[in-house]
Amino acid sequence: MTRFASSVSALRSSEIRDLMKLAASPDIISFSGGMPGNELFPLDMMDKIYDSLTDKDKQIAMQYGPTSGLPMLLESLSDYLEKKGLPVKKNRLMVTTGSLQAINILAKAFIDPGDNVLVESPSFIGALSAFRSYEANIISVPLNSDGIDIEQLKVMLESTQPKPKFLYFLPNFHNPAGIVYSQEVKQQMIDLLRDKDIPLIEDDVYSDLYFYKGDVAKMKNIKTIDPEGIDVCFTGSFSKILGPGLRLGWMLVPEHIYQKCELIKQSIDACSPSLSQVIADKFLRNGYIQEYTENVRLEYKKRGLAMIDALEKHLPEYVSFEKPRGGFYIWLHLPKGTDSTLILKKAIEKGVVFVTGKTFDPNGVKNDCMRVSFCNTDVDVINKGIPIVAEAIREVCG
Ligand SMILES: Cc1ncc(COP(=O)(O)O)c(C=O)c1O
Q: Which pLDDT tens digit goes with each residue over 179-227?
């Protein structure tokens, strides 16, 4: 009998990952993944970037780099983040191997086995898995349409002993809930957490993918305020605004937290891929990012609005959802007690996949909700697939 460590015995394969195998079949319509459409990648820009690389760039691309990131990328990324109002100079920036690594490193920095950590319910499965792998005791706080439930957060902060090691949250175009935090909820979070010695992990990978430019001002990160008395650890990624295959993300954190994180990253992978960093630097430095994000925003908006229309037209009236204003996801609320796994089974038989609610429940139980993503299917496929999802829901719920 192989004797695995206790920290990994509890790990389960996520339903998303298992479903990805199914979604790979060419005939299945997949509303399950959170990846950009292949046809949306900036291939022309990539060609131009490759063609512009000097021998020196190529040597840097093939070599190990500093753990914190290649200096050229740290410079261009700092510039990009500063323009978004993030306090780069007051903090330390580290390039990571995807933002999931940033979350993982922060988890390792803070969690001892059995420690309490606070998350939203529902929450991003990748982060939940990372926290589980360090044997955290995950405590969830419900999410409303304008952010975390402040009254419940207050109760949890008062009643959780020993006090939580951090609060992890997703401010913009939440995965899976699709919502955006209101300014008011963010301010109440700041008021509740000030001087409590409970860091905030602010995971923001979708904020560039808004449908309406007018929303940008409301989506200001807590990190842009960097309130006194709270250590805010901000994480972001190139995955949704360039390509997840590069495996590049970042963390922007206070100096004392950075010091620990750099040591942790050194022991994990020494540095993130230099080739990816050289490419990402040119993407930022040459201004391709503005043109590209403008284009994909339009396409995701088209897909998102088409999915909203199709859902409104085909879903039974007992299913409700918050209309997304950006990002990749729509979160459907089914009648109380519905088992969305039964709906998924029916939908798969009919040729469509999505993700069940319990995948995102920190306790792995609440299943009367489900996530459909619009990022990876064009409008025609959305119009073909959503009536099938609605039919599967009707077959199970009546
Ligand atoms: C909310 C959220 N955070 C982090 C990530 C991880 O992204 P990556 O590791 O590709 O940067 C994802 C990926 O789907 C996500 O949805």
A: 999 999 999 999 999 999 999 999 999 999 999 999 999 999 999 999 9
The tokens for 233 are 């650890």
| Cα 221 to Cα 347: distance, rounded to the nearest angstrom | 37
Residue type, 170: L
CA of 279 to the centre of ligand 1 (A): 20
Mind listing the pLDDT tens digit for each residue in 256-309?
999 999 999 999 999 999 999 999 999 999 999 999 999 999 999 999 999 999
Ligand 1: lining residues by beta carbon, under 6 Å: 34, 98-100, 124, 126, 170, 175, 203, 205, 237, 239, 244, 249
**Cβ 99 vs Cβ 203: under 8 Å:** yes
Which burial class, exposed, middle or buried, applies to 273 when counting CB atoms under 10 A from its CB (0-12, 13-18, 19+)? middle
Residue with tokens 């957060």: 153
Nearest atom within ligand 1 for CA of residue 102: 9
SS3 category, 56? helix
Q: Which of 35-39, 146-150, 244-248, 271-275 has the lowest mean pLDDT?
A: 35-39
175 C-alpha vs ligand 1 centroid, how far in Å?
Answer: 9
Query: How far is residue 134's CA from residue 356's CA, in Å, rounded to a whole number?
Result: 25
- Looking only at the bridges linking them, the beta strands covering 249-253 and 147-148 are unpaired
Cα 293 to Cα 298: distance, rounded to the nearest angstrom: 9
Structural domains in the chain, CATH included, are 6-42+290-397 (3.90.1150.10), 56-288 (3.40.640.10)
pLDDT band at 251 (very low <50, low <70, confident <90, very high): very high
The structure's pTM equals: 0.96
Vertex 108, ends 106 and 110: CA angle to 5°?
A: 70
Mutation choice for ligand 1 from 16, 77, 99, 202, CB with most ligand atoms inside 8 A? 99
The span from the CA of 262 to the CA of 94, in Å, is 8
